[in-house]
Structure formats: C-alpha cells, structure tokens
Amino acid sequence: MAKITAGVATSHVPAIGAAIDLGKTQTDYWKPLFDGFEYSKEWMKENTPDVVFLVYNDHGSAFDMNIIPTFAIGCAEEFQPADEGWGPRKVPVVKNHARLASHIAQSMIEQEFDLTLINRMDVDHGLTVPLSLMFGQPEEWPCLVIPFAVGVVQYPAPLGRRCYALGKALRQAVETFDEDLNVQVWGTGGMSHQLQGPRAGLINQEFDQQFLEDIVNDPETVAEIPHIDYLREAGSEGIELVMWLIMRGALNQKVVEKHRHYHVPASNTAVGHLILENPQ
User: Fold this and answer.
1) Which end of the chain, N or C, is less surrounded by CB atoms within 10 Å?
2) Where are the alpha helices (DSSP H) in 54-150?
C-alpha cells in the first residue's frame, strides 16, 4: 500500500524562481536564503519519493475571478509551467500520478471534502519554485507530482482547521491506494508578508518563529488560528500558511524534525522551511 513518509513546508516566493533562473543564487542578497536549502537538496537525494502531493495556491494563472475553487486537485497526465507575464519558467513539465490523484479525489469526496477536479491547467511559481528549491535544476523532475491548489488569494479562504482535517483525510486516501508508493506531502506559501496597502512589506518574525515551532509540536493549536489573526499578525498574504496545515495533518501526531530554515527578507517576504519525517 502507499504511505506518507515525510512532509515538506516551504515558501514559494516568485523572486526565488527568478534568482535560480538568472543564476543569482550566490549573490550577497540571495546566498543566505539558498544556503538554508543545501541540506534539503541532499536530503531529497536520499529520500526521493515516488510521488509528491504538492499543496500550493494559484496566482491567477489557472484560475481568475470567474472561477475560484477552494480545493482543486489536478487529475491530468501532466501540467505545463505557466506564463506569468514574462514567459514560462524553463523548468521541466510536471508529470502527474493521475491514477493516484483520481483515487484521492474519490476518497476525499467520500469523506465529505468537495474537491474541484481539474484536467487542464498550467502551474505557476507556487508549485514550481518549491520543486526547484528541493530538486535544483534537473532535466526532469525526479518524481511524479500531484498539484493541489487551495483558494487563499480571494476570500473566503478555508479555515486552518478545515485544512488540517483535509490533511488527515488525505492520509486515509493515500493509505488505501493499492500500489506500493512512497508519498510526500508538501505545504507551500507564506510566511508573513503583505504585498499591498499601507502595511506593504510587513514581516513579523516573532509570529513566524512561533508558527514554525507550533506546527511541528502543537499543530492542533495552530489549526485554531482564526483568519483575522493571520491578517493582523502575518499580513494579507500570511493566510497562505493554512496550506502548511494540510501537510501537517497528513503526518503522524509526533514527527521527527530533520531541518528548519528561516530567512528575512526575500523580496519583502519572510521565508520559512521545514522537513518533517514520519517515524518509521
């Protein structure tokens, strides 16, 4: 049977992808951020999964104001990198495990999570930047990837407790799949940042550091953070952190923290990163 072995959380700042694509990762500005992912890339070489279930949010590439799904799962065979205004990133095509994605969709809908099934979409930096951070710049991604988009750009966004419960339903779905697969769940987005208005550029390191600590050791408390607290403490885009709770809900109650990284700033954004393993 398939099993979830680990979870990864990371920010997905678009400027990180630009720094990688333009060869700027070793400049004075970017080097401290990328140094924090050197361990991660080595860990990935030793722990490459068969499938990554990657939780992210679309930034107007696949969805617009006409269609705003709360939870959308990609069920097609593959997904092209999106053109976000300056041409698609020169990264590999994302290849899906379509049969597992379809199984997850059926299982989770039967667990009363109403998913939107997507059979055609391009994937933007929300999905490709985490892959680049963890895998570098390969000719092909070394595993299959199931895209799972969460509607956190336009309110109403899903509650943290709903995302945490969805992670638990995801685990049940994966563990009832009839193929021996090593699956990782990645939650992306965040940490504190605001891109517009009088508080543009807001970064709250105290909130971020407490969030990193609590999502590892006290996820139930994190799951109860209300939307207004994300807005006040982490900025208007800090709501992306609810996507980390899908990853955390899919793991054991007790996890092994293998790596933690936090860096400020990256394009006026706080970057957080965790690698958590399920105890064997």
Assistant:
1) C
2) 98-110, 125-135
